[in-house]
Amino acid sequence: MSAITLKVNGRSHTLDLDPATPLLYALSDDLELRGPKFGCGLGQCGACVAIVDGTAVRSCVTPVSTVAGKEITTLEGLGTPEKPHPIQKAFIDEQAAQCGFCLNGVILTAKAFLDKNPKATEAQIQQALSGVLCRCFAHTRMHAAIRRVANGVSK
Amino acid sequence: MTRTALSKHALAALDRRGFLKSAGVLIVGFSGFSISTSEARAQFGGSAIPGSPPNAQLDSWIAIAADGAVTAYSGKEELGQGIATAQQQLVAEELSVPFERVTLIYCDTALTPDQAYTSGSQSHPANFNHGSLALACATAREALLKIASDRLAIPVDQLTAVDGIVSAHADASKKITYAQLVGGRKLNLTLDRNAKRKHPREWTVLGKPIGRTDMPAMATGQLEYVHNVRLPGMLHGRVARPPTVGATVISVDENSVKDMAGVMKVVVRKDFVGVVARKPWQAIEAAAKLKVAWTPGTGLPGQSGFYDRLRTLPSRDALLVNSKDTAQVLAQAATVVHARYDHPYQMHGSIGSSCAVADVQGDRATLYSPTQGVWYQKTTGAMILGLKPENVHVIYRRGSGCYGLNGADTVSYDALILSQAVGQPVHVQLSRKDEMAWENYGNAWTFDERAGLDANGNIVAWEHEAWTPSLGNRPGATTPGNVVTGMLIGFPPAPFAPGPALEPRAYNNGSNGIPSYVAGRVGGVESGTGTVKSEKVLVHNVASPFFTGPLRSPARLPNTFAHESFIDELAARVKADPVEYRLRHLRHKRVIGVLNAAAKAANWETRPSPAPGNPRTGVVTGRGVACVAYEGDNGYTGIVAEVAVNQDTGRVTVKRLWVAIDAGPISNPDGLRNQAEGGALQGMSRALGEEVTWDDLKVTSVDWSTYHSLPLGFEIPKIECVLVNQPDENATGAGETSITVVAAAIGNAIFDATGIRLRQIPFTTERVKGELQARTPRA
Lengths: 155, 779
Prior knowledge:
- The complex is a heterodimer.
- In chain A, helix 2 crosses helix 5 (139-150) and helix 3 runs parallel beside helix 5 (139-150).
- Chain A is an alpha+beta fold.
- In chain A, a hairpin with a 2-residue loop joins strand 1 (2-8) and strand 2 (11-17).
- Chain A starts with a strand and ends in a 5-residue tail after the last helix.
- The longest helix of chain A has 14 residues, at 103-116.
- Chain A contains 5 helices and 5 strands.
- Chain A folds into 2 domains: 2-77, Beta-grasp domain (Ubiquitin-like (UB roll), Roll); 86-150, [2Fe-2S]-binding domain (DNA polymerase, domain 1).
- Chain B folds into 3 domains: 8-219, Aldehyde oxidase/xanthine dehydrogenase, molybdopterin binding domain (Aldehyde Oxidoreductase, domain 4), CATH 3.30.365.10; 226-296 and 348-438, Aldehyde Oxidoreductase, domain 4 (2-Layer Sandwich); 445-773, Aldehyde Oxidoreductase, domain 4 (2-Layer Sandwich), CATH 3.30.365.
- By secondary structure, chain B is of the alpha+beta class.
- Residues 1-23 and 31-59 of chain B have low confidence and may be disordered.
- At the A-B interface, helix 1, helix 2, helix 3, helix 4 and helix 5 of A face helix 7, helix 8 and helix 18 of B.
């Protein structure tokens, strides 16, 4: 165990952790955040995504020691139910979910991609989401929500 | 068939109910009783319930507090399908109160009515027709109007209730609020079977596309899933499942993990092995490093030839219909067509592996579970713990979308066992592999379809024969061994006993075992949706090496894949248009309605399949159709699929889907559309790629690289939904309609495009390519 400082959603937290612990557990257990979720533990589904220094990473396979001091953003770091971020608002407006368990990975993956590629085409957005799963298959609505943001409708 | 009545558990609870004092609330239940406002507040607010469950209001559906706040209690839970919002709409509508004033509480064994499982597309039939929650609201509204009539001295028929205020038609200044009517009084009502419900044509809240109340919290990471439940002193558990099917514990070396940080206890109960640690990652690491010696396992039949072998196993048989003349009619038919279809085991594959939190303290237990049946977890959980059922309190908490019996029940048992062993709350989430290797899969199937056609090409006889393996199921009230954890600690699964079929005595659609096109004549009455009078449906249940259980549209989807592919083969055989040919053999107006609606939306071109003039190389397109009366009478859907097939690679791309759904009066059009869209795409993923695989010892599809779910990144078909509103009909299920027909529609479209007939799911690229290569040269 060792003291590791994580900057999450603009606040610093010093945690006593085994440096090999995946970031996911620091976020969901130590910090009790509800956004990042365990889906597979293998980096295959996207449920655990967090944005680290602007890039969507799979927190279930990212040791905390590698992200100490970096800017980490989780789904709750974007906005609130009362004041959602534009991409969260787009998902709410499109009713783009069923169980909602995958939303963390879908929204954060799309956001990190659109931040870097604001003029992305439909095909590029699809490619960016090729490693994200939604088992309720709310795909149609999710893509509509992401298109809203890409087209600036929700900004 | 009714699944709405209070079960024996809730009825037993009536005897224990304490009668609390005070006033200021209206409660509708199966018998009247009173409750204090402060008690009501504490409980209505959903605050944590300590050790002993309160036993006050188990049988109540509706409570209106003295300030006009409405709390509704339901036994049908939000799984992600949107039913909580729809139920809130129902309560607001029937009670004539604002939507926002309603709080809905569901599936807590201490608080809510026992409505059995939330499953089987039964939430709408149970709570939105003339019974249960809807009737409780109507009872309350009528009672309030009557009290208002007395208070205002105006006849009931000259009063209106809107937004929780009763006012006179003639003079709006003569009014009184629900809060004033309840005031300082005790109003204990019994459910009134004669209470009049609002007609759907009068609806102002139901029938509207109100957004899901949980959507903002989901989109912002605020929603509490069971995975997020945190209790004081909570520890984390991880299980170590057997490495192969049938393996049993020889020995467990507890010393192998005793020096690991945070490890609290190694728990072994017969073949159940788990570790409890302070933190989740510690539990995961310890379970991975724990040395367990297992027996080699019982071995598995090879996957190759599996469907053939199913047909040879001892079976428990069931006849659904039997006109006893099919052999004779087939012998005399102008043409006899036979086809065989195979459907694999498939997984629920929830995106989040299953999770539960249990707190077992002495002789009492509290369980936070994503189960579809909290009352069954109460009784079977008690069996596992050796406690009295009344001392086990089960509280539903959202899990990841389940689509049926995923790992929710088994992980709930894991949490109970581990918590009991350490006497502290324990949070358990399964690994991806443990979820996928041991869940109760949707059953595999192999089918023979056989039909006789007359000289005009009309169907004169239809035989359907099915073989399906099963092991375990939902645990019900008494069989925890129906899921893996129960079996590992020594409870047997429900036994399998072969036996011959009896002649059918009452009509049972048999999970769409009965094709839509036969008459369904049993006991002299035709209850089917079709016209073919010579009919036989025989089902052989055989033993499964894997646990099985309901997976969204259980049996209905595989049966419908076979029926709707076969009717397409018959139409092609006689060069008839696939829609026209179906209509020729249907007599049920609602199935006909959705079939026509889907065809119209798709601008269906009337002609036989395959499409004329498609080349034998490159990309070709085709269209296919399918329809069904879900369970015979619980939702109606028609679908048209347009596909592109790359004949050089075998790749199938679904370009467009047109889905028509009739589920009675529509509670929430956007919710229905969401279910229709998601069901269609989930069915598409199952049709194109999903299959449980295994080797000679174990399941090998244990993650997302070995079990193939279509990701967000695939080319998504454009989906058009036609919602057929039926205000004069009863509400039916809806969530399992579109998924039931999509595989057949895609298969039929592939046939239309290429002339190849796919009779085995999934339609993988390799399988399509193989069929294309085996295609006979064009004459």
